[in-house]
Amino acid sequence: MLTGSSGFFLKGLGLGFGCASVFFYFIHMETIDGLKTQWLVEQQALAEEAIALKTKATTQQQIETIDLLMKSYAISDGNEDQDMRAALVQSGHMRLLEQLIAQTKVDVSDLIPAEKSFNSAQLYAALLRMKQTQERMNARNLLDQRLQADNSPANQPSQ
User: 88: burial class by Cβ within 10 Å (0-12, 13-18, 19+)?
Assistant: First the structure.
């Protein structure tokens, strides 16, 4: 159909447009892929930050709950030999203590035996062990965060 120089020109023009459209398609797809990757990295960073904040809040809330239990059931005259399990069950705070033991994963079975009575000194010692463990974990997390902040590329001296 198309013969001569005008046909040759139109075939070359069509081939050029075809190659250009494929080239721009690949560039477009690479750009979209890069944007998706960047978005996923940002979302992952936000999710990790939210988890870190939630963990920090949970740890701080656990420490506060332990402090409240320590203050409420402190050793005082007359309750040294009192059954603290019964007192905790009666006040409804036994559930809080059980949650703390499960969440902190600190072994206090030697101080607070399962289904047996325990006194205020044993309760205080168990709460103190849990509090120290949580504070130690919290301190290590803060130290790790500061170390990462010091090792970030923005804080590195230029050579």
Answer: buried
Q: What are phi and psi of 10, to 5 degrees?
A: -65, -40
What is the Cα–Cα distance from 63 to 59, expressed in whole angstroms? 6
Distance CA 107, CA 103 (A): 11
C-alpha 75, offset from chain centre: 35
The one-character DSSP state at 108 is -
Percent of the chain having pLDDT more than 70?
91
Residues 84 and 118 sit within 8 Å (Cβ to Cβ): yes
Alpha helices in the chain (DSSP H): 4-72, 84-91, 94-104, 120-150
Tell the residue number behind the tokens 């402190």, with chain if given.
Answer: 74
| Tally of domains in the chain | 1
Per-residue pLDDT tens digits for 80-103: 777 788 888 888 888 888 888 888
What is the residue whose two structure tokens read 């130690």? Answer: 136
Could you tell me if residue 24 is inside a domain?
A: no
The domain in which residue 100 lies consists of 31-147
